From TrEMBL:
<keyword id="KW-0346">Stress response</keyword>
<keyword id="KW-0378">Hydrolase</keyword>
<dbReference type="InterPro" id="IPR004504">
    <property type="entry name" value="DNA_repair_RadA"/>
</dbReference>
<dbReference type="GO" id="GO:0005524">
    <property type="term" value="F:ATP binding"/>
</dbReference>
<keyword id="KW-0547">Nucleotide-binding</keyword>
<keyword id="KW-0234">DNA repair</keyword>
<keyword id="KW-0067">ATP-binding</keyword>
<keyword id="KW-0862">Zinc</keyword>
<dbReference type="InterPro" id="IPR041166">
    <property type="entry name" value="Rubredoxin_2"/>
</dbReference>
<dbReference type="GO" id="GO:0003684">
    <property type="term" value="F:damaged DNA binding"/>
</dbReference>
<dbReference type="InterPro" id="IPR020568">
    <property type="entry name" value="Ribosomal_Su5_D2-typ_SF"/>
</dbReference>
<dbReference type="Pfam" id="PF13541">
    <property type="entry name" value="ChlI"/>
</dbReference>
<dbReference type="InterPro" id="IPR020588">
    <property type="entry name" value="RecA_ATP-bd"/>
</dbReference>
<dbReference type="InterPro" id="IPR003593">
    <property type="entry name" value="AAA+_ATPase"/>
</dbReference>
<dbReference type="InterPro" id="IPR014721">
    <property type="entry name" value="Ribsml_uS5_D2-typ_fold_subgr"/>
</dbReference>
<dbReference type="GO" id="GO:0000725">
    <property type="term" value="P:recombinational repair"/>
</dbReference>
<dbReference type="GO" id="GO:0016787">
    <property type="term" value="F:hydrolase activity"/>
</dbReference>
Length: 474
């Protein structure tokens, strides 16, 4: 018998009060060693394609990619929707990859993968139609079909096959007969492997089912997608070792009452983890958003009194630039009752203290509310200046003109600091028709040579200069 940690998957020959690897308390569960040996025997099933003789030994690195065209190696995803997914995956779907997709219940994971399955089955730029197998352990094939019809996805391909099962052996036997271009498992927590102890969703079952699917993917070059449930803390349910087994981990994010969804990569062996995909949930499924900045900005108001407390920040997420709206409200009262949405509390505390100490604003007797529009989580420090400007606007009851944007990080001395990719941020602001952009003084000279179509770049050294520049004439 061995003891296995349900959090990280670390094993030990004897019981300990806490896991020696992750130091979690009370997570060691007893498991039979014979079960692990049995799983190894199961991995030699007929659906595992044997390697060629010349692939059994070590190979030279120069020989591995010989004759492989990197431009056509990945499976392309066509259309605007496919381009958005490909951006997050790193340029397309890699043959033999194992992709884990997590997210809150109802966020749209099944809808996303059903659309991806239809796209891969249709072929498009990847050589014509080919079978794709969608496995559901939670819904019947009739329920999946009704969901697709209800959402009006318009899936017309005859190469998308649905199958309802939770037995990994049965699933892979069906996949062997079909020889699919891609395999989708919805969800991994409902799957089980015969002979492995524990019920579906348990540590051993989830671990061994994922390992079996990994061996299938690597030996057949068939990409496999897994849907993973998340816990209350937002982590994928099951052992953390699950995230180490797979090649790619994607998280789908979105507020419950918002139609916008964000697909983010937190692990990617074949590309960057900085990319972000933006989608909108509609009656016909997920639609890619071609200009994400539009969803983060409210409609322009002619009455400037309405705009007090609003400021535009310019952030970069991956290779994309977004303009988002920061809202602030200052009202007299006890400051402990305020709230912050969309930015770290520690960052908000620092900015308000700097405004009081370095800019002379008497915010200590005010309740301050700060909100980032559309449920965006703002972690880019380039948004510091916009947060400070929104708070100043509400406190001074002086609106900010709706053609002004802010870029800059705030230091503890009230000074403005430069941020990365300033040229890219400023160019994005000018293309959207803004007339002024407030930036740190240190970045003003480097931006002077840019063709900004008449937009003025105003450099400021500190918060006092920003307040005088923006609110001095109001």
């Amino acid at each position: 018998m061995i003891w296995v940690c349900s959090t990280c998957g670390n094993s030990s020959s004897q019981w300990w009060g806490s896991c020696k690897s992750c130091e979690a308390m009370g997570t060691m569960t007893q498991t039979s060693v014979s079960q692990t040996e049995f799983v190894e025997d199961k991995s030699r099933k007929s659906w595992i394609v044997p390697r060629k003789t010349d692939e059994l030994g070590p190979q030279r690195l120069t020989d591995v990619n010989k004759g492989v065209n990197q431009l056509t190696w990945r499976i392309p995803l066509s259309g605007v929707f496919g381009a958005e997914v490909s951006r997050v995956l790193g340029g397309g779907l890699v043959p033999g990859c194992l992709v884990l997709v997590g997210g809150d219940p109802g966020v749209g994971k099944s809808t996303l993968l059903l659309q991806i399955a239809a796209m891969v089955a249709q072929g498009g730029d990847s050589g014509g139609p080919a079978p794709v197998l969608y496995i559901s352990g939670e819904e019947s094939v009739e329920q999946i079909g009704n969901r697709a019809d209800r959402m009006g996805m318009g899936i017309g391909t005859e190469e998308l096959f649905l199958y309802s099962s939770t037995d990994i052996e049965d699933i892979l036997e069906k996949a062997q007969l079909l020889s699919p271009r891609a395999l989708i498992i919805d969800s991994i927590q409902t799957m089980y492997l015969k002979g492995v102890s524990g019920s579906a969703g348990g540590i051993m079952q989830v671990n061994e089912c994922t390992s079996t699917l990994l061996r299938y993917a690597k030996s057949t070059d068939v990409p496999v997608f897994l849907i993973g449930h998340v816990t209350k803390t937002g982590e994928i349910a099951g052992p953390r070792v699950l995230e180490h087994i797979v090649d790619v981990v994607l998280y789908m994010e979105g507020e419950r009452y918002s139609s916008h969804r964000f697909l983010r990569s937190v692990k990617n062996r074949f590309g960057s983890t900085d990319e972000l995909g933006v989608f909108e949930m509609s009656q016909s499924g997920l639609q890619a958003v071609s200009n994400p900045s539009e969803i983060f900005l409210s409609e322009q108001q002619l009455d400037f009194d309405v705009l007090a407390g609003l400021a535009i920040a310019v952030i970069v997420d991956g290779s994309r630039t977004f303009l988002i709206e920061i809202q602030a409200l200052c009202t007299p009262g006890m400051p402990v009752s305020g709230s912050v949405t969309g930015i770290p509390q520690s960052r908000f505390n620092m900015i308000t203290r700097v405004l009081m100490k370095q800019a002379g604003l008497k915010l200590q007797d005010n309740v301050i509310f700060v909100n980032v529009v559309s449920g965006v989580k703002l972690t880019d420090t380039a948004g510091d200046l916009a947060i400070a400007a929104a708070i100043c606007s509400s406190f001074l009851e002086s609106p900010i003109p709706n053609d002004v944007a802010f870029i800059g990080e705030i230091g503890l001395g009230g000074e403005l600091r430069g941020v990365s990719r300033m040229e890219k941020r400023v160019n994005a602001v000018s293309k959207l028709g803004y007339r002024k952009c407030i930036v740190p003084k240190s970045a003003e000279k480097s931006l002077a040579s840019l063709d900004l179509g008449g937009m003025k770049v105003l450099g400021c050294k500190n918060l006092k200069e920003v307040i005088n520049t923006v609110f001095g004439s109001n």
